[in-house]
Amino acid sequence: MRVHGMRRSRGVVVAVAVLAWSLARLAPVIVAQPQSSCLLAGTDSAAILDELSGIRAKDSVIRLTGFTRTPASSGFHDAVEFLQESLRQAGVPDVHVESYGTDAPQPWSVRRRPGLPSWEVRRAELRSMDPPRRIASFEEEPICLARYSRPGHVVADLVDVGVGVSPADYVNKDVRGKLVLATGYANRVDELAVGGFGAAGVIVSGGSSYSPRTGWGYPDMVNWQVLNPRASGGREPSFAFVISQDEGEWLREQLRGRRTLRLEADVDATLADAPQEVLTAAIPGTSHPDEQVLLLGHLDHVRPSANDNASGSSALLEVARSLQRLIRSGRLVRPARTIRFLWMTEGAGTVGYLNAHPDVGGHTVAALNLDMVGEYLVPGTGPMRLTRTPDSLPSFLVDTVMNMVQHVDTRVVFDPTGSDSLLNIRLAPFSANSDHYTLADGAIGIPAMLLHHAPDPFHHANIDGPDKVDPTEMHRSMFIAAATAYYLARVGPEQLPRLAAEVYGGASMRLGETAREALSLMDGVPVPERDEAYGFADRKLTHVADRELGALASISRLAPEHLPDLKPLASGLTAQATAHRAALASRYVTLTGRRPPLRVLSSGDARAERLVPRKKVRFINERWQQELQVDALTASEREWLTQYMTGTELPQVYIRVPEMLNFVDGRRTLLDIRDRVSSEFFDWSVGDDYAGHYEDMSLAARRIGIDSVLELMRLLEKGELIVLEERK
Ligand SMILES: [Zn+2]
Known about the structure:
- This protein is an alpha/beta fold.
- It has 21 helices and 17 strands.
- The strands form 3 sheets. Strands 1-9-11-10-12-15-13-14 form an 8-stranded mixed sheet, with helices on both faces. A 7-stranded mixed sheet has the order 3-2-8-4-5-6-7, sandwiched between helices. A two-stranded antiparallel ribbon has the order 16-17.
- Helix 5 (186-196) links the parallel strand 5 and strand 6 (201-205).
- The termini are far apart.
- Residues 1-34, 209-213 and 685-689 have low confidence and may be disordered.
- Bound molecules: zinc ion.
């Protein structure tokens, strides 16, 4: 009944959508439209929307998912060749592959890092001898072999070790020379079972490398796992087969009621040093070709990895093809700045590109990272998320992107073969989960945002196939990317007041939102914590006002020679912040009958207020742990650091420490830096598929213990990354 009703209404929606779609296609220019709120001219946005095709993009997704796109390996190379050929056929200029050998210069590193090796698998199969049965085959599903598995041929009995990630799982079990069946993270199981207890190899079933919730309701799901690409602690990993929960159950069923189950595991694979390939293409700018807008997406991952990230890679191809066609045909004016496209290995490829072009931050005005941009919005799948730039790097980019989102929201955008889902997009806090993180790093300084969908129940699994990619959602993502890039590549001094108004409006909304959080924080805490809450709330208002003034000021980056007058809007933002702070203070008086307290500094706070950190060497902040001279630290200092970075003292420590370094500019005090990072909220954390976005303003989430920050900075100084200067 319900299904029937849904089908009927769906039919009506589709009919209306198709009608609207055809009308939009037939008459995008003729129909008189109210003045558009879009930053782009109406004819430009209509032309971009019309030329982009979700169907074409999905065709490329289908092609790309046929490749096992292991970094620096033949499948990745084949995918690069496919894209390269497609770009050439589309007439996109400046298509070439950059290749970074293992001896390439690394100006962004203090200490040389080995790149990712290539990993070529000729054969990998796991079989049961009796009853004879094929359990996993690399040819069929390459995801069944954990990446960087080493070669081996083993005929051995199977031992079930449960989760297999702690020594307790191995008590009273003889695994020596045997294959172990576990449910934990393959790399850890390998370290313990093979490295610690002498097992011959690893089989992991069900579960997930990321979240225990992933895979619920999908018993045939096989999750993607990765072993150490390099020897760790003097030991090379062995191999790990990864099988579904159902297949694991079949093995456990066989083990029950019989003494042994004999399996044959056969892995023929090679690891070698190999260059990283980065594919790039560019639509050159006319008057400012040295300035660029960067669109990027990672091409690597196991087959099929459709949404992650054949979707982003294909979206980039379709955006490049469409913009090039529109410009060549004269439907769009050639932009002033260059629009550059980048397809690379996540992390390693981006860092390779930055090392090969160490000054790219200086001439890149903005970047959009497309990673998982085409999901069908089925139950369990999160909305499209657009992550803000970090608070350390406020930018006009956020409101430019949100303007394009608004535009897409006022149009019927369904692709003919795509879904009729409605737009579901939200602006999300800054996150560390893809390449935008490195670009927006304080060292590089490129305002960068991520377009992605999260949570995605099929992420890093065999069932992330092309059937999960929706041409309609691809169309919307591609429009946001193409329109933003084209606008920022074109925008000149005369359009900047309009952009400034956009930033002013967005900034005012965010300030208002912060006022709501600040007031509710102070009202929500028990009386003994009220003064502390007032301090946090007031400082957050100040911090957000600074950030938004920074976003407004960033507009001058687009026309350094013709600075628009931003003073009236800046005064407006300052006045709003002052009014919000006054409202907060007034509420404090009402609640307590006292005037708001002056800040009392602890001795640690006072020490931090006298210290000004400055970077001593050039490194990408998010990679500080790899750059630190750990030999300079004592064993107990190293232990403290490990505890701080992996323990529970500081939530989101993985992103907050790099963000502290992002704020280091040789002028800010350590106290100011700590205060700013305690005001900032981040969304992404591994193993957490929380889908909401209201900032956690609880005091617990805001507290960053100053004594630990002082110790951390002392160790960073000892490890030769920064110097701490006494403030004069
Ligand atoms: Zn990805």
